[in-house]
């Protein structure tokens, strides 16, 4: 399998965590998002959305969308299980994962911020305000209330919720989002940082890190 990856991509970071938790090794192909390589025809032929990550299977099939990729990996290699077998637990875990992936992350995606800066002529200060507003007020504050007593979002083992939360906390820090009012999320973040799979997937540890 080949992962189309970029060190700072939150969505690719989710897949890296899932792969590491499951002990799966994949070939890596780096797509430099800041240089616009996601819009080159060769990459668009892999993922017409022009977004990282994508996972190319050995038969050439390309999967897109980090959550779809992770659920595929979870079905193929169910140990450790990232989406619980119990339907009620699974719905809770997916609820947090989707709140991050659908309702927070898209609002601070590169192409959205580039549009704010370029077409809408917004300053860096305004863009930072936008990111912090939608990350925190619009998102992480609610996640703080949705998670259960730790050490992970839903109990003693990491799930898809943690796999989505940790890259979103990393993105929030990049934009200097104040996080002090989120003690439960900060504790989960610290716990995950000590887990070798989460540590190995960190952007700073990737071969393309700058
Ligand atoms: N919902 C998608 C989001 C993918 C996504 O937005 N990727 C970002 C990096 S985190 C990207 O490739 N951005 C490039 C751009 O906006 O041009 C997923 O979960 O895979």
From TrEMBL:
It comes from the Bacteria. Keywords: Isomerase. PROSITE patterns: GST_CTER, GST_NTER. The keyword Isomerase applies. Residues 86-210 form the GST C-terminal domain. One of its GO terms (molecular function) is maleylacetoacetate isomerase activity. One of its GO terms (cellular component) is cytoplasm. The keyword Isomerase applies. SUPFAM superfamilies: GST C-terminal domain-like, Thioredoxin-like. Residues 1-81 form the GST N-terminal domain. One of its GO terms (biological process) is glutathione metabolic process. Belongs to the GST superfamily. Zeta family. This is Maleylacetoacetate isomerase. It comes from Methylosinus trichosporium (strain ATCC 35070 / NCIMB 11131 / UNIQEM 75 / OB3b).
């Amino acid at each position: 399998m080949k992962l189309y990856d970029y060190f700072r991509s939150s969505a690719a970071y989710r897949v890296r965590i899932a792969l590491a938790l499951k002990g799966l090794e994949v070939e890596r192909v780096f797509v430099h998002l800041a240089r616009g390589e996601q819009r080159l025809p060769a990459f668009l032929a892999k993922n017409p959305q022009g977004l990282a990550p994508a996972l190319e299977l050995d038969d050439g099939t390309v999967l897109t969308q980090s959550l779809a990729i992770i659920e595929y990996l979870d079905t193929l290699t169910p140990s450790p299980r990232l989406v619980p077998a119990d339907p009620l637990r699974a719905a809770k875990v997916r609820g947090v994962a989707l709140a991050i992936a659908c309702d927070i992350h898209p609002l601070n995606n590169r192409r959205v911020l580039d549009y704010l800066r370029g077409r809408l002529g917004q300053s860096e200060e305004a863009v930072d305000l936008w990111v912090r507003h939608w990350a925190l007020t619009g998102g992480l504050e609610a996640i703080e209330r949705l998670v259960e007593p730790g050490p992970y979002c839903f109990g003693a083992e990491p799930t898809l919720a943690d796999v989505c939360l940790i890259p979103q906390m990393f993105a929030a820090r990049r934009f200097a989002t104040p996080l002090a009012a989120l003690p439960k999320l900060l504790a989960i973040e610290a716990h995950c940082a000590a887990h070798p799979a989460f540590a190995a997937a960190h952007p700073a540890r990737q071969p393309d890190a700058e």
